[in-house]
Amino acid sequence: MRIRDIFNLSGSAMRAQSTRMRVIAENVANAETVDDGKGIPYQRKLTILQTKTAGRSASPVVGVNQITIDRTAGQKRHEPGHPRADELGYVTYSNVNPIIEMNDLRDADRSYRANMQVVDTAKRLFRNAIELMKG
Question: Using CB atoms within 10 A of its CB, is residue 27 exposed (0-12), middle (13-18) or buried (19+)?
Answer without folding.
Answer: buried
